[in-house]
Amino acid sequence: FQSYGEVVGTKLLPGAQKSSALVRYASAEDAKWLVENLNGNIPQGLETPVIVRFAHAKGAGKGEAQSQGRPGPYSNGGGGAGQAWGGKGGG
Questions:
Q1: For residues 18 and 63, which has the higher predicted lDDT (pLDDT)?
Q2: How far apart are CA 83 and CA 89, in angstroms?
Q3: Coil, strand or helix at 28
Q4: CA end-to-end span of the chain, whole Å?
Q5: How many CB atoms are closer than 10 A to CB 78?
Q6: What does R_g of the chain's alpha carbons equal in angstroms?
Q7: Which candidate, 86, 77, 91, 76, places its Cα nearest to that of 24?
Q8: Which of 87, 77, 85 is CA-nearest to residue 27?
Q9: Residue 3 — φ and ψ, nearest 5°?
Q10: What is the pLDDT of residues 20-64, one digit of tens each?
């Protein structure tokens, strides 16, 4: 995924039939481009389409992240500000 932008971190999430990965990009713009252009497509070097989306903030979906006043992943108030995680799923 380095051919799509500056990768600053990765984490493999192995699964029984499918594996996933978290890929952190240096800029939110690179991550946004991947979400908009690579989602549902086959990236270079792979043979199957991938799912690309922004990572959810811890507690997101339960209302915890907003109710506790924690900053979002691209705000100036949180750790790792300015770095973007983009996830990929697939084979």
A1: 18
A2: 20
A3: helix
A4: 14
A5: 13
A6: 14
A7: 86
A8: 85
A9: -70, -10
A10: 888 999 999 999 999 999 999 998 888 999 989 888 777 666 554
CB contact set of 15 (below 8 Å; sequence gap of 6+): none
How does 18-57 read in b/e, with b if 16+ C-beta sit within 10 Å?
A: eeebebbbeebebbbbbbeebeeeebeeeeeebebebeeb
CA dihedral 72, 74, 80, 86 (to 10 degrees): 100
- Residue showing tokens 């903030």: 57
Contact predicate 25/6, CB 8 Å: yes
Maximal C-alpha separation, the chain: 42
Query: What is this structure's pTM?
Result: 0.56
d(CA 40, CA 60): 24
Closest CA to 2 of 91, 86, 90: 86
Q: Tokens 């506790």 label which residue? A: 68
